[in-house]
Amino acid sequence: MALKARGKETLAAYLFLSPNLIGFMVFTFLPVFVSLLLSFYAWDITSAPKFVGIDNFVKLLGFHSEGGSLVVNDTKFWQYLWNTLFLMFSIPICMMASLGLAIALNRKIKGESVFRTLFFLPSICPGVAVAILWLWIFNPDFGMLNNIIYWIGKFLGFVIPGPLWLNSPGWAKPSLMLMNFWIAIGGMNMILYLAALQGIPRDFYEAAEIDGANGWQKFWAITWPQISPTTFFIFLMSIIGGFQGGFMQAYIMTGGGPGGATTTIEYYIFNNLYTWQNVGYASAIAWFLFIVIFAFSLVNWRYGGKLVHY
Amino acid sequence: MAEKKIKRRSAAGSKEKGLQFFAYTVLVIGAISMIMPFLWMTTTSLKTLDAIFIQPKNWIQMFVPTMFKWENYAEAFRVVPFAKFYLNSIFVGLAVTIGQVLTSSMAAYAFSRLTFPGRDKLFFAYLATMMIPGSVTMIPVYVLMRLFGWVDTYKALIIPMIFSAYGTFMLRQFFMTLPKDLEDAAKIDGCGFFRIFWTIILPLSKPALATLTVFTFMGNWGNFMWPLLVTNTDSMRTLPIGLESFKTQYSTDWHLLMAGSVMAMLPIVIIFIFTQRYFVESIKLTGVKG
Q: What is the CA radius of gyration of chain B?
């Protein structure tokens, strides 16, 4: 009898699971293994796949001798990896700014929800529309930024030449970082910080005040340790997101240029898959990315966890 | 003594006032820099093409068009099949959202309220896949779509997007918090699993279901890479991809592009304003335990 009931429950459970489980198998679980397999093949989708062993990975990560000196096999890949990492340097700055905004909002502020809405807006708007908007903001001749710079110069009494922004190899990455900063500063991160700040018990501050702590001391002794799990979480998620970022900006705004300055790993994967139909090579890069992200997360959980006060 | 106390309090009070003033300054400057690009976008969308290529002499010229060209919005619909992009986005967004909420809630029910062999292992497999970058699975799924002959059909836009480990995880966490007693009472009354799911679990989970609905719809509305991969004709494109069609090989109709972008943002902004309170609360709850 009990056995029968249990069998019934198992059956029901699998019936409830099946729509999601089948989809999960077909579109997530199997593809993970298939993509690992594909990374050992050369394939352009139309003709038959050809097994090439670890050639894709050798091309990706290896180097060869050229005129007596060692050269990496795929110079572009390393440039794009550097671009990806460079764009991630804005993460700590952005986190600090988000925390600053959250601290300001955490005071008794009139119109808190209005501010929150305004700050949150950039991060919920469709990325393409935001990218198009900023493409026009960065326009060297008619864009909003260079107009503002020109007026500031006029106000100060001399001409400040506005940069070419996305058109300049040196400025292209900082431009994208500025845009990403604008998008992310008031988004999820700020909300998470706000939630963390609101979770700190008032008594901690009251006790510190009795002991005569000033504002900075209260921040370093109470606020910062109390929100450290949130900081850790945001940092980890931002890094994971950063490794996979930059596709839309490259596709819509820069075409990956100038001179490959804004091509990220994700855009390189897309081009290998879609533009050049190197399915195998694209899979190898995707797996490289996966391993990097996984290793990074492991190191973080292992060592970052110790710095965090729970 | 008393005088000293008052003095100290007023000193603290003025310091407090100073901090409050500082906070307002930061927030107001921040809010202005957040809103200014949107404002500029909206006003650009109302200018003539000639007018946007003139250096504005001052703030007023930059933000206020000499004549408001509302026709730009109608023009956007004429120049490219904008209505089609809009309908596609709405249709795909709704289909994905309904599919995801339905399949995720069913799976979450099994994971949270039923016991069956292999449950925890399977759930762990779901969790583990959330760590894998999207591009890893995207490649074989894209190949699969080509093999199925689904490229440039609604099937490719909808079906692979329905199955979400995240949605399952989120709903499972919520379902776990529901009291067991109600379920037991229903069982004694002879309710089957489906009745329990449909008449007890789902109605009690409205906040979580609403959150997932809004998240999924918004996420899908802005989705770019996947629709770009699997569509190649205007009749299948969604809004984000469709916006690109204002950029022709020779010139860009910036004023129309801006009008299109404003229209692409509008539904999301409206949804957000109405669900703002709720939305923010749910991010606080589901995002991370601080």
A: 26
The single-letter code of the amino acid at B155 is K
Contact B232, B152 (CB under 8 A): yes
- B127 to chain A, minimum CA–CA distance in Å? 11
A179 to chain B, any CB pair closer than 8 A? The answer is no
Give the DSSP H or E segment for A66: strand A63-66
Interatomic CA distance for residues A72 and B214, integer angstroms = 46
Q: Going residue by residue through chain A (310 aa), what tens digit of pLDDT does each one get?
A: 456 777 888 999 999 999 999 999 999 999 999 999 999 999 998 888 899 989 999 999 988 888 888 888 889 999 999 999 999 999 999 999 999 999 999 988 888 888 988 999 999 999 999 999 999 999 988 888 988 888 888 888 888 888 899 999 999 999 999 999 999 998 889 999 998 998 899 899 999 989 888 888 999 999 999 998 889 889 988 999 999 999 999 999 999 889 999 999 999 999 999 999 999 999 999 999 999 999 988 888 777 665 555 4
Q: Are A296 and A235 in contact (CB under 8 A)?
A: no
Residues of A in contact with B27 (CB under 8 A): 101, 104-105, 109, 115
Is the peptide bond between A258 and the residue preceding it cis, with omega within 30 degrees of 0? yes
Chain A residues with CB-CB distance to B132 below 8 A: 32, 290
Nearest-angstrom CA–CA distance, B103 and B160? 13
A20 min Cα distance to partner chain B (Å):
5
| CB atoms B107 and A21 under 8 Å | yes
- Say whether residue A34 is in contact with chain B using an 8 A CB cutoff: yes
CA angle A222, A228, A231 (to 5 degrees): 135
Q: Is A108 exposed, middle or buried (0-12, 13-18, 19+ CB in 10 A)?
A: exposed
Say yes or no for a CB contact (<8 Å) between B133 and A191.
Answer: no
Q: Global pTM? A: 0.90
Query: Which segments of B114-188 does DSSP mark as H helices, in order?
Result: 119-129, 134-148, 154-162, 165-176, 180-188
Q: How far apart are CA A43 and CA B264, in angstroms?
A: 37
3-state secondary structure string across B253-265? CHHHHHHHHHHHH
CB pair distance less than 8 Å for A126 and B102: no
Paired tokens of A162: 């506005």
Whether A244 and B116 lie within 8 Å, measured CB to CB: no
Token duo for residue B70: 């509302």
> Which residues in chain B have Cβ-Cβ distances shorter than 8 Å to A270?
135, 225
Question: Phi and psi (nearest 5°) for A163?
Answer: -70, 170
d(C-alpha A92, C-alpha A100), whole Å: 12
Inter-chain touch A30–B168, beta carbons under 8 Å:
no
Pull the structure tokens for residue B62: 């930059």
In angstroms, the CA A65 to CA A63 distance is 7
Side-chain half-sphere CA neighbours of A243 within 13 A: 24
Find the largest Cα–Cα distance for chain B: 87
Interface test with B, best of A3, A41, A110, A125 (most B CBs within 10 A): A125
Could you tell me if the ipTM is greater than 0.90? no
Please name the amino acid found at residue A231.
T
